[in-house]
Design brief:
The chain is globular and about 60 Å long. It has three domains: 64 residues, no CATH class; 85 residues, Orthogonal Bundle (Arc Repressor Mutant, subunit A), CATH 1.10.10; 121 residues. α1 runs parallel beside α3, α2 packs antiparallel against α5 and α4 packs across α5. The protein is an alpha/beta fold and 281 residues long. Helices cover 37% and strands 10% of the residues.
Length: 281
């Protein structure tokens, strides 16, 4: 039971409101490892269904509602990253720029604007600082989403048809209408029919992010407006799989960092890409 308690506290990341509310909720539950495991596995659903935990969602929703419009889009975009995922600052900002979420203004470059967005989200405690990844001089290299805030992020992103993740246990009916940002989780069963047989509306997908194993059928002819293709650290990706990427006329960002089986980029790729760090590119 102590193991389950530690996992639940980890999800709270020191957020007093979350610790207090979930502690009070568990006080009325049978004190067994099985019962606490259920709570840990179902925190997302519990936020919606249980009045005792609904106060957490209400307060966090107010934090989200209080964000300026430009920060709301930048924040919801982060729902594509898995739980406890270390999000590299530069990677995130470059993606924001490619998506058009931040542009140069008032004498500032797009990257400087993205840096300011990042700092604002950090100051508002919408993202967590990873102290072990703080560079010399205090520069922040990576961040994470607080687990419970991430649940809010996912809920709002789905409500607005902004992002959808294909993962174990996902419900395709949750993807109502068009999807702008599609992520493929490492635990998804790689069901070809979902993408090839048009079980999802892919006609307006602007970004595709893959975690885990790569499959060639992930890119559909229907993804005509794809701007971001992030394949960083995927496995199974080969040089020949990149040939079809040249058909993505709107592509602004390509990441194949950590894909060590890639030896060369096809000549048709003219956009800025992130190549494997040890490739010599």
């Amino acid at each position: 039971m102590l193991d389950q308690a530690a996992l639940i506290i980890k999800k709270c990341h020191g957020l007093p409101l979350a610790i207090s509310a979930i502690g009070g909720f568990l006080a009325n539950k049978p004190k067994t490892a099985t019962e606490w495991r259920k709570v840990n596995d179902r925190i997302r659903a519990e936020l919606d269904m249980n009045p005792e935990l609904r106060s957490i969602k209400t307060v966090l929703m107010r934090s989200y509602d209080g964000l300026p419009y430009h920060l709301k889009s930048a924040f919801l975009y982060m729902s594509i990253f898995p739980e406890d995922y270390k999000i590299k600052r530069k990677r995130l900002i470059r993606r924001w720029i490619a998506e058009g979420y931040c542009r140069g203004m008032h004498g500032m470059s797009a990257e400087e604007v993205g840096d300011r967005y990042f700092e604002e989200l950090l100051d508002r405690s919408m993202i967590l600082l990873l102290e072990e990844d703080t560079k010399y001089g205090g520069a922040i290299d990576s961040c994470q989403l607080h687990d419970i805030i991430r649940e809010i992020c996912i809920l709002k992103a789905r409500e607005e048809n902004l992002a959808f993740t294909l993962e174990e246990g996902c419900c395709l009916s949750d993807a109502q209408g068009t999807i702008r940002h599609l992520a493929i989780g490492s635990n998804w069963k790689r069901d070809k029919d979902v993408l090839v047989e048009s079980m999802l509306d892919l006609s307006h997908v602007r970004s595709l992010t893959v975690f885990g194993e790569w499959k060639p059928f992930f890119i559909s002819d229907k993804m005509r407006f794809l701007r971001v293709l992030d394949l960083g650290d995927t496995f199974g990706l080969r040089d020949r799989h990149l040939d079809q990427i040249g058909q993505l006329l709107h592509l602004k960002y390509l990441s194949i960092r950590g894909c060590y089986d890639i030896c060369c980029l096809p000549s048709c790729l003219g956009m800025k890409s992130e190549a494997p760090p040890n490739s010599g590119w």
